[in-house]
């Protein structure tokens, strides 16, 4: 009996020892490893590694999911037979790849920040140049809307940059650059079409100055693009004045109400002052002349203008200028002190030549 008890006790102790050994040999759950991997993934996502280092980030996410799956699988097994080695290995790989993604992202962000800063400066300069080069050229509603939209997008891009949201900033700056390019193309086309008439303008100006020199007379030359009115005496320029034009000054005048300033060879038809004009003093031109009338009829035939359109009239060089903007309905406005000079010197019959520009396009925009 005593031997049996000893045997039972021995068996119990051996079994207990085996159980203790098995329990001690079971690995701890991969909680810490998975928490570390999760923390790195959250950090990587926060700085947008999914955008800057997508392959590394997605691989890290995949290994993290694999570690969770492996852990879940082992938890379904009998306690004594659980093995968390795979779960820990997957979590470690996830943590490692997430750290690499963070490093790559920070490096790219550093470079991106510098490049975006330079790009913002470049786009600000491009907008400034665009306004400086083309600011006095009439623009249609679509172009005007694009200009406003471009400025707004640039402001939003700068705001996103200052908030360190570089991806959003880049998207805004991309759109800004596209709009600037489209506006530049728009202006280039308008100017290209307009300056195709330069040979004619040059001929008119040369003819007018030669006539002034030959006949020892005065003449006026208007350069619409440069906003200049020049007084010539005996073929020599003696005065130059700044002018303001109509709001739709680019191109020739086609019809009544188009708010365009005509181009061509004219003469002063009448001189008005006092109660005869609301613009202080005015030199009335013989617009429309015969060439204007022929072109008006031809434009109707070509359906460039409507059949019920009327030809314009009452184009003057007058005072009340100096506003700093284009505001007339087709006339040429000077400051009162400047119109005083022209009014005194010029007579009825004095030649007035109005052209788009005295300089060719390539000289204005080398």
Question: Would you write up a description of this structure?
Answer:
The chain is an alpha+beta fold and 366 residues long. The protein has helices at 2-25, 31-46, 49-52, 54-75, 85-134, 141-162, 166-194, 198-215, 290-301, 336-345, 361-364; strands at 218-223, 228-233, 236-242, 264-273, 281-285, 316-318, 332-333, 351-355. It folds into 3 domains: 26-108; 116-195, Up-down Bundle (Substrate Binding Domain Of Dnak, Chain:A, Domain 2), CATH 1.20.1270; 198-364, Beta Barrel (L,D-transpeptidase catalytic domain-like), CATH 2.40.440.10. The chain contains 11 helices and 8 strands. It has an 8-stranded mixed beta sheet with strand order 3-2-1-8-4-5-6-7. It is rod-shaped. The model is unreliable at 21-25 (pLDDT under 50).
Question: Structural class, please?
Answer: alpha+beta
Task: Provide the low-confidence segments as ranges.
Answer: 21-25
**What is the rounded distance between the termini?**
119 Å
Task: Compute the number of structural domains.
Answer: 3
């Amino acid at each position: 009996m005593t031997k049996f008890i000893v045997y039972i006790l021995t068996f119990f102790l051996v079994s207990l020892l085996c159980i203790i050994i098995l329990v001690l040999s079971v690995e701890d759950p991969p909680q810490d490893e998975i928490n570390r991997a999760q923390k790195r993934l959250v950090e990587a996502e926060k700085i947008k590694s999914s955008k800057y280092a997508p392959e590394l980030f997605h691989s890290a996410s995949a290994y993290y999911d694999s570690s969770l799956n492996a852990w879940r699988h082992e938890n379904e097994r009998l306690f004594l037979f659980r093995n968390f080695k795979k779960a820990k290995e997957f979590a470690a790989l996830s943590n490692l790849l997430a750290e690499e993604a963070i490093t790559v992202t920070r490096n790219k962000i550093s470079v991106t920040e510098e490049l975006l800063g330079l790009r913002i400066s470049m786009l600000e300069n491009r907008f400034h140049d665009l306004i400086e080069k083309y600011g006095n050229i009439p623009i249609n509603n679509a172009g005007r809307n694009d200009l406003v939209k471009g400025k707004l997008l640039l402001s939003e891009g700068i705001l996103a940059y200052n908030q360190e949201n570089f991806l959003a900033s880049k998207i805004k700056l991309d759109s800004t650059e596209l709009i600037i390019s489209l506006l530049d193309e728009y202006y280039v086309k308008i100017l290209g079409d307009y300056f195709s008439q330069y040979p004619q303008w040059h001929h008119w100006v040369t003819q007018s100055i030669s006539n002034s020199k030959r006949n020892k007379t005065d003449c006026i030359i208007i350069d619409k693009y440069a906003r200049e009115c020049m007084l010539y005496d005996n073929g020599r320029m003696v005065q130059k004045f700044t002018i303001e034009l109509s709001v739709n000054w680019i191109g020739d005048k086609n019809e009544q109400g188009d708010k365009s300033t005509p181009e061509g060879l004219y003469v002063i038809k009448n001189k008005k002052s006092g109660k005869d004009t609301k613009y202080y003093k005015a030199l009335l031109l013989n617009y429309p002349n015969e060439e204007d009338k022929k072109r008006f009829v031809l434009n109707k035939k070509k359906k460039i203008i409507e059949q019920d359109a009327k030809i314009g009239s009452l184009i003057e060089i007058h005072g009340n200028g100096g506003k700093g903007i284009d505001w007339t309905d087709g006339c040429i406005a000077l400051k009162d002190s400047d119109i005083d000079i022209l009014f005194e010197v010029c007579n009825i019959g004095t030649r007035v030549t109005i052209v788009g520009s005295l300089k060719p396009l390539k000289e204005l925009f080398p």
